[in-house]
Design goal:
This protein is an alpha+beta fold. It is built from 21 helices and 14 strands. Strands 1, 2, 3, 4 and 6 form a five-stranded antiparallel β-sheet that branches. The chain is globular, with a radius of gyration of 22 Å. The relative contact order is 0.13.
Length: 477
């Protein structure tokens, strides 16, 4: 009987969007199992050994400003509410050390950076410049200013010396891998390699300005997504000048009514995940600090220091793997991964283990009913997938994830974490079917997005501009 199922599953995976038989019952079972997984993760991470290791990690990273900020940002997205209440206050105090470790720099010092890079006084470049920063980035601060032609701009300025400090920290990361992994087992060598490559690219604001301008042009005229344009001609290695976008930050968004949070959650999901399957490119740094809600309801996405363009072949592979998981075609899924080289010891991995491992990470987007994403659910799925202390999926965790896929999976997890902080509700599977199966949209936002896609001219392939280079070496999943 079981061998007959793939035929019907394949039929359900057509563009006709035929509903999966019995999917409501399966969705309920999925939600119960996901809760159970999260609770198990909470119990594991509540151990005092983890807390002690966290203290040691904070001591080591105390002077690693850029690196510590980035790790703290990743933790703040994914690990909120992961630790049980009796340990949460201690954990969050230590987390705050990482998240808030940006140096305190006076405006006069930051002004000197601007004038040094421009080679002229501040007043020669800007008609007005507010000395109070409006936001902080992991390696700099953001100010509001006005150009001499009246345009309001945001000016992101690197902390002086942060480039030297970050590069020194990156060289030393290998020395601290064992300490880091004792507190955060998901910080694998592959994750640290990604961190090293990404932070290095973030130091070049001219490259980031060029990338952001391209993405701004890509989303021009979009009904609910906006990417403020940049002015590469006014940007330098340490100063990035972009269009100023007024809006409410993530903390204010979290206080909005559920319906508005759900709408913004769908927009976040479409931008960070849908863009990969629509344009073969995506922003790799989903983070609450990187978006604003405008007064017109559009959501502005900021910070494109971490950006990736993928070969269409690699994007297609991810899509067919997700479809195989959605349709529970375990043998097909394992065959795909063996052929791709992700599973290099197939005799040790059963099709069922392969399927369950993929589902543990992405089943939230495969449940065909409204699902509320909570911080616990997001963190539980992430840690279960990568935490070597979890006895489940030990074999899969030893397999090789090609580097071209590591970056996109990280972005997927961080998006999941953002939705968890919003506690957004949606039928994420029906949204994803638009790019996985070519289904017609079922939401108002989806219909507006597809109308926009149909109205825009086909974009020319992007060949120029900075991209994140993928390494040739395979990375451990």
């Amino acid at each position: 009987m079981a061998k007959e199922l793939p035929t019907s599953r394949l039929a359900r995976g057509t563009k006709l969007g035929i509903a999966v038989a019995g999917n409501a019952l399966r969705a309920q079972k999925t939600r119960r199992s996901m809760r159970g997984r999260s609770e198990a993760v909470r119990a594991r991470m509540a151990e005092e050994s983890m807390i002690r290791a966290t203290e040691q990690m904070v001591m080591v990273l105390g002077t690693m400003k850029g690196v510590a900020m980035k790790l703290g940002q990743m933790l703040s997205v994914l690990d909120l509410d992961l630790v049980p209440p009796e340990h949460r206050e201690r954990f969050q105090r230590r987390l705050a050390v990482l998240r808030d470790s940006a140096p305190t720099v006076s405006f006069e010092v930051m002004r000197a950076v601007i004038e040094e890079d421009f080679g002229q006084p501040l007043e020669a470049v800007f008609a007005a410049f507010d000395p109070e920063p409006v936001a902080a980035a992991s390696i700099g601060q953001v100010y509001k200013a006005t150009l001499h032609d009246g345009r309001e701009v945001a000016v992101k300025v690197q902390y002086p010396g942060i480039d030297v400090a970050v590069r020194a920290d990156l060289k030393n990361l290998a020395m601290f891998r064992r300490i880091l992994q004792s507190a955060m087992p998901w910080v694998t060598p592959a994750v640290l390699d990604e961190l090293r490559l990404n932070l290095e690219s973030e130091l070049d604001y001219v490259a980031e300005a060029t990338t952001q301008k391209q993405i701004s042009e890509l989303f021009a005229g979009h009904p609910f997504i906006v990417v403020p344009t940049t002015y590469p001609e006014l940007s330098t290695t340490r100063v990035l000048v972009s269009e100023y976008f007024p809006g409410r930050g993530f903390d204010e968004i979290r206080e909005l009514p559920a319906a508005e949070r759900n709408r913004i959650g769908e927009i976040i999901y479409r931008f960070y995940v849908g863009s990969l399957f629509t344009f073969n490119e995506f922003c790799g740094d989903p983070h609450p600090g990187n978006l604003l809600l405008g007064p017109d309801g559009r959501v502005a996405f900021l910070d494109f220091g971490l950006f990736n363009r993928m070969d269409a072949e690699h994007v297609h592979f991810e899509a067919i793997c997700i479809r195989a998981a959605a349709e529970e075609r375990a043998e097909d899924l394992r065959d795909l991964m063996v052929e791709r080289g992700i599973i290099d010891s197939p005799e040790e991995i059963t099709p069922e283990e392969c399927l369950e491992y993929v589902l543990a990470a992405c089943e939230w987007a495969l449940v065909d009913e409204d699902l509320t994403i909570t911080p616990e659910l997001a963190s539980g799925a992430f840690v279960l997938a990568v935490d070597p202390r979890a006895g489940e999926f030990t074999g899969m965790k030893q397999q090789n994830l090609p580097p071209e896929h590591l970056f996109s999976r990280r972005a997927d997890f961080l998006t999941f974490g953002m939705l968890g902080q919003l506690e957004a509700t949606g039928n994420w599977h029906r949204i994803a079917r638009e790019w996985l199966y070519g289904d017609e949209p079922v939401t108002e936002l989806g219909r507006a997005h597809h109308d926009w896609l149909a109205s825009r001219p086909a974009p020319a392939p992007t060949t120029g501009g900075p991209t994140k280079k993928t390494r040739k070496r395979a990375a451990k999943a």
